[in-house]
Design brief:
The chain is of the alpha/beta class and 382 residues long. It folds into two domains: 195 residues, Glycogen Phosphorylase B (Rossmann fold, 3-Layer(aba) Sandwich); 172 residues, Rossmann fold (3-Layer(aba) Sandwich). It is globular, with a radius of gyration of 21 Å. The two termini are 17 Å apart.
């Protein structure tokens, strides 16, 4: 079988969808050596990083197709990609980032990571919301099968897009292999490079409204004012839409000396940052899956997260949870991790066990099964 995957998410600094595309493509190729997989994009993207850990050789059955038609990118899904598929003998096309071509000479699969554009439109730019409301129902109908990363997202696809449950396959993501607990000696140089001082609390993700960082900052301010704990708060991630409120709140509360914004952090540094943190805090209002908490657990870091959307499904009972709007509850959870050694050790052990239940090996096998299903259906229908 020959499968093409949308590689546009790899053309920018990788966040959640980029990590999904990268990991899935590699594991598909490593497990199913008798199939051919192609990453295709109208934007140039690094390919060497697709090797496991970024070091080992990329699988021979995984190739890169850079189609330089950036000038017509707005017509890529309508014209450019269908034209490429017409001259390429593909068996399946997988849209890894919500989109598939409207017209395709082969069966298509689409991954819908979340429905935040519809369910939480206020946390996105208006143009993106309008475009999403127009395109997402079309893409969901045109694809032969939809992959959702969580049961939560599946329910929302059914509710907001009116898709029948049988068309949606839930396939959980996994923590990448490099996400492992590291000894302190392996972390110190990374901490020094970013100016991080132990003890510290960690967040990883784009600085944007949906991540609910204002609640985290208020909880942190309460921690400093009402307890004896003085950890640094480290916020790792690139700047996103409407991030000004987060920086303004830090200034208003006079926390500039205690809160560190690192900017975007490369994958190679994340295991050290996770492993050395007292706790990983992810107060997000809405997630289709929630990869950072999973990877933090895999690194042996206690996780504190909100009890909203898919996060309980991912974290289970292995983390402390709170109402995303309740900053005092978040403060109490932080105090518990910082003060109670037994509780901290419990959540470290529980987190490692929970993370082990998710894997890219399983995700790749289940995804290939979806490809097989749609391809056989396509053949039967001629």
């Amino acid at each position: 079988m020959r499968v093409a995957l949308d590689a546009i998410p790899l053309a920018a600094p990788k966040t959640g969808i980029g990590h999904y595309t990268d990991s899935l493509a590699e594991w598909l190729a490593r497990i199913h050596t008798d199939h051919q997989y192609e990453l295709i994009s109208p934007f140039d993207f690094p390919f060497d990083a697709c090797g496991r850990h970024g070091h080992s050789p990329k699988p021979e059955n995984l190739s890169r197709k850079f189609i330089p038609v950036r000038s017509i990118f707005k017509k890529w899904w309508l014209l450019g990609l269908p034209a490429f598929l017409q001259i390429s003998p593909l068996d399946v096309f997988h849209g890894t980032n919500y989109c598939v071509p409207v017209f395709a000479p082969c069966p298509t699969v689409v991954t819908i990571h979340d429905l935040s554009l519809l369910a939480h439109s206020g946390t996105h730019e208006t143009d993106n919301v309008i475009r999403g409301r127009r395109r997402m129902p079309i893409m969901a109908r045109r694809a032969r099968k939809i992959i959702a990363p969580s049961e939560w997202t599946k329910r929302e696809i059914i509710e907001f897009l009116g898709i029948k449950p049988g068309k949606i396959q839930v396939i959980h993501e996994g923590a990448r292999e490099k996400m492992l607990p590291l000894p302190e000696s392996n972390c110190q140089s990374v901490l020094e490079r970013f100016g991080i001082k132990k003890p510290y609390l960690l967040f990883v993700g784009t600085i944007e409204p949906r991540k609910n960082l204002t609640t985290l900052i208020r909880a942190y301010d309460t921690l400093l004012r009402e307890t004896e704990h003085r950890p640094q708060l480290v916020l790792c991630g690139g700047r996103g839409w409407l991030d000004g409120e987060v920086f303004s709140l830090v200034e208003k509360l006079k926390l500039q000396e205690q809160v560190l914004f690192t900017g975007y952090v490369e994958d190679s540094d994340l295991p050290a940052l996770y492993s050395s943190a007292e706790a990983f805090i992810y107060p997000s209002l809405y997630e289709g899956f929630g990869l950072p908490p999973l990877e933090a657990m895999a690194c042996g870091t206690p996780v504190i997260t909100s009890n909203s959307s898919s996060l309980p499904e991912v974290v289970g009972k292995a983390g402390l949870m709170h109402d995303p709007e309740d900053h005092l509850a978040l403060t109490r959870s932080i105090v518990e991790i910082l003060s109670d050694k037994d509780s901290r050790e419990h959540f470290i052990r529980a987190g490692l066990e929970q993370a082990s239940r998710f894997s890219w090996d399983r995700a790749a096998r289940e995804t290939q099964a979806v490809y097989d299903e749609v391809y056989q259906q396509w053949k039967k229908r001629g």
